[in-house]
Amino acid sequence: xxxxxxxxxxxxxxxxxxxxxxxxxxxxxxxxxxxxxxxxxxxxxxxxxxxxxxxxxxxxxxxxxxxxxxxxxxxxxxxxxxxxxxxxxxxxxxxxxxxxxxxxxxxxxxxxxxxxxxxxxxxxxxxxxxxxxxxxxxxxxxxxxxxxxxxxxxxxxxxxxxxxxxxxxxxxxxxxxxxxxxxxxxxxxxxxxxxxxxxxxxxxxxxxxxxxxxxxxxxxxxxxxxxxxxxx
Length: 232
Known about the structure:
Elements: E1 3-6, H1 8-19, E2 30-33, H2 42-58, H3 67-82, H4 87-90, H5 93-101, H6 105-111, H7 113-118, H8 120-123, H9 136-149, H10 163-171, H11 179-191, H12 196-210, H13 220-230
Antiparallel strand pairs: 1-2
Helix pairs in contact: 2-3, 3-9, 9-11, 11-13
């Protein structure tokens, strides 16, 4: 199946123009990769519309300033909208550039508005699919995938003010490949929140253990028991 992709060079042209208030036609920049038929992208369009409506409702909540909470709560929707795509598309940074400059540009801008206001070079990382823990659309997909595979998608948005928790202690480390361990870590953070230094030390112990033990072989009970033991 064929899927849309945008090069890094084209992304720079589009992004720089948008940062200056322009609305360039991106059609010439899109390359379709793979044999026909094209992948079904309607679920992503539908999810984008639904998330925009949910964001309006989020603006009336007491925790409306917790942008990571909305990102987390929305992540399973992004995953479900794209989970049917072939792995070739999901592994291609160019595909995530396309997602970012089309259906989810508004979401990336809202999420990282401070960087957008500083200019294209500051914002670029959040719409370029090369760095999976930074690109808003891709990190949401992965976050939703992890918690869905762990059996509880709601955990993706369970931690308040969880930006550093998710980027530094789940997505950027081996825990990103261990759904049940990641879910157990989320549950633990919700039940008894660790502050920055405690969480950093705890994560180091977990990462060291991950280098020697196949944690992805643990079931939920085993994973959570291990996480309790590590919290000294």
